[in-house]
Design goal:
Helix content: 25-40%
Strand content: 15-25%
Radius of gyration: 26 Å
Oligomer: single chain
Number of helices: 18
Shape: globular
Distance between the termini: 63 Å
Structural class: alpha+beta
Length: 680
């Protein structure tokens, strides 16, 4: 009897965590129409948005346009950020970086950091090319990428990816590693309180209330160990994901075990981290010193208190929903230009403690952080989609999305940085590493919040745009990968933009399957299909670090660090971020050589050149040469015309090569910048 009750209890917990799938929406018109042409010209949009680099995006991304140009501009810019942060590690595959430039605290020689992985995977899951997410997850679990340098919610992110692509095998591939990694975090678990604790710095949030106050207000970079809503929400999400994945694998015991762990964290967060005096989830101290004491609560509200909703942790109750009032109050967390990480009533609000030279450094005592703004908006999407509350409205969500989108502009140019002044919206840190920073999300917010796709584990497609009736007059999203299909969602308030009448329409693989007269939830059956197999060509020229891999030489500027940048697996064309090899001197012809050390059969090269119309120009001419053992010979190849700020392809019949060089002729006074050369 006890065993039966126990199994029933675990089953109820698991059902609660996974969510009972609602029935198909009976009010939606389910139909199968003949294929119709897509109203968006994706080829034109790709060229308009990405210039010569359009081919990389055209076959990979979902396309989106709306009546709000700001949302659209930032949407496509965020795909540029995704592209720029893909680092090709050769045999290891692709990973996603947080900083485009190297930083001293990254994992060498890969340039990875695990704190931003959740944001990365939530963006990557919307790509039709599944290699980038797949390689990245493999690296994090198989190649030690997740070194627990920071807190994270990797298992939860793998589950999120599965909800979009519906592919079971890669979702279950690392289940054993997930369980080992989860258990490793018990070294940050207080068994007397049944909660996880962390130093704010290792939560990627230095200079919080906890760390500043634990120093007596003197510092706050180190120290301040606390039981935080963040790490406990992350571990809740990870436990829930492992439970769901174990159930998918047929391991009922493991599924019930991790469902119970998740339920225990949920109960403890609600009981212990809810602060009734502040109506907010707040930290409690683990550290005990002359300034702060073990189990005391911190003395103010922080934006981190909304992280539990990003993981659907809190009960659907008015008690917890009351916390959302603070995010709407200008005197509390709602800054004029963005969401404050700490309320201005905190005595050390916006006090600058740390500098790099004369430049302010990262702090979480008030500035706006895209990182936590994303988490708040993800939580708000959950709140609006399936919680019952009367505080936050769809208008609030759209307003905060627009406010967040506006932060992506820096002096009129799209350039997302690390943090911002909540009063002015101006960047604070402004260091070279800060340009086009990738520790946040936006594409996922558009897909779930604006377009309204609510990913599910069952064979259902659910669309619920979280827009007010007068929010956007129209939008269209196309080529969205979902469960092996391509989904399109169209909304036209008045019916005059697309000429198909007013309302919401959903198409799958070019066939309209459902419609609504207005903005309302559509839920329809959709049997999943196999995804397109992942292609994995391996770049043979990549060098993980200077002098680590192929030997490099050049006609000039043969410093190994400079040469390395042309084979470091990174490609972007942002003028604010220098990337690539640039020759020195005035010689009109320059060359760049790669010695592979052993013969490899190659047939294809990709060349990336940067041009800005000022200092840098693509070569006027180029060709490839191979070393035959005694001299250089021109390689007979089909060479595309030079494509500045894009990828130039060169193809030839497969041949065994040990040494190859790229010979380039300068174009007038413009110098060459070879961003990357890849060999396949």
């Amino acid at each position: 009897m006890r065993g039966t009750v126990g199994r029933l209890l675990c089953g109820l917990i698991l059902t609660s965590l996974m969510g009972a799938p609602p029935a198909a929406d009976a009010q939606a018109k389910v139909q199968q129409h003949p294929a119709v042409p897509e109203p968006m010209d994706a080829d034109r949009i790709a060229v308009d948005r990405f210039g010569n680099d359009a081919p990389w995006y055209r076959d990979r991304i979902a396309f989106f346009e709306s009546s709000d140009a700001l949302l659209d501009d930032v949407y496509y810019y965020r795909w540029k950020i995704v592209r720029a942060h893909q680092r090709d590690l050769g045999k290891i595959g692709y990973i996603t970086t947080e900083f485009a430039n190297d930083v001293s605290w990254q994992r060498e020689p890969y340039a990875s950091l695990n704190d931003a992985t959740g944001f990365h995977l939530d963006e990557l899951r919307w790509m039709r090319d599944r290699r980038f997410a797949d390689d990245y997850i493999n690296y994090m679990y198989e190649d030690g990428g997740n070194d627990r340098h920071f807190t994270d919610y990797l298992a939860d992110s793998v589950w999120h990816r599965y909800l979009v692509d519906g592919d079971t095998q890669p979702a279950l591939r690392h289940l054993s590693a997930m369980r080992r990694l989860y258990d490793a975090w018990y070294d940050h678990y207080d068994w007397s309180k049944n909660l996880y604790w962390i130093e704010p710095l290792l939560d990627a949030t230095e200079y919080t209330i906890a760390s500043i106050d634990a120093s007596g207000g003197k510092d706050g970079f180190w120290g301040g160990d606390v039981f935080r809503p963040s790490i406990n929400s992350y571990m809740y999400g990870n436990a829930r994901a492992i439970s769901q994945l174990a159930a998918l694998a047929g391991d009922k015991a493991a599924s019930a075990d991790f469902a119970a762990r998740a339920a225990d964290i949920k109960q403890r967060v609600e009981q212990a981290l809810w602060n009734p005096e502040l109506d907010h989830f707040t930290d409690r101290y683990k550290v005990d010193n002359q300034y702060v004491h073990y189990w005391d609560r911190i003395r103010g509200r922080e934006l981190v208190g909304y992280v539990p909703w990003a993981f659907d942790l809190p009960d659907d109750s008015a008690r917890y929903a009351s916390a959302w009032r603070h995010i709407l109050s200008p005197d509390q967390l709602a800054g004029p230009a963005g969401l404050r990480t700490v309320e201005p009533s905190y005595p050390h609000y916006m006090q600058q403690y740390r500098y790099e030279g004369t430049h302010p450094e990262c702090q979480w005592n008030g500035p706006v952080w895209p990182f936590q703004t994303t988490q708040v908006l993800e939580g708000m999407i959950n709140l609006l989609d399936h919680y019952h509350q009367q505080i936050v409205t769809r208008s609030d969500f759209l307003r905060l999305m627009r406010q967040y989108a506006q932060l992506h502009y820096n002096d009129g140019k799209l350039d997302l940085e690390e943090d911002y002044d909540p009063a002015t919206g101006k960047p604070i840190v402004g260091l070279a590493r800060s340009h086009h920073y990738f520790h946040s999300g936006y594409i996922d917010l558009i897909m779930r919040g604006i377009v309204g796709i609510q990913p599910r584990a069952d064979d259902m497609l659910e669309i619920n745009p979280l827009l007010p009736a007068n929010g956007l007059s129209w939008f269209r999203a196309e080529r969205i990968p979902y469960h092996g299909h391509l989904v399109s969602v169209t909304y036209d308030a008045h019916g005059d933009h697309f000429g198909q009448g007013p309302g919401l329409r959903v198409s799958v693989d070019g066939h309209q399957i459902a419609s609504r007269p207005g903005l309302a939830r559509i839920t329809v059956p959709l049997a999943r299909l196999p995804n397109t197999p992942i292609a994995r060509p391996i770049d043979q020229a990549v060098q993980l670090a200077p002098n680590n891999g192929p030997k490099l030489s050049a006609s000039s500027n043969d410093d190994q660090t400079a040469l390395h940048e042309a084979v470091d697996g990174r490609v972007w064309f942002f003028p604010e971020l220098v990337n690539g090899w640039t020759p020195t001197g005035t010689a009109s012809q320059q060359w760049f050589e790669i010695d592979l050390g052993q013969a490899k059969t190659l047939s294809h090269a990709e060349l990336a050149f940067f041009a800005d119309g000022k200092r840098f120009a693509a070569p006027a001419a180029y060709h490839l040469e191979r070393w035959d053992g005694s001299q250089w010979q021109t390689l007979t190849a089909q060479a595309d015309p030079v494509l500045p700020n894009g990828i130039t392809h060169v193809r030839w019949s497969p041949v065994a090569l040990t040494r190859m060089r790229l010979v380039m002729a300068r174009a007038g006074q413009g110098n060459i910048r070879l961003v990357e050369i890849k060999l396949f």
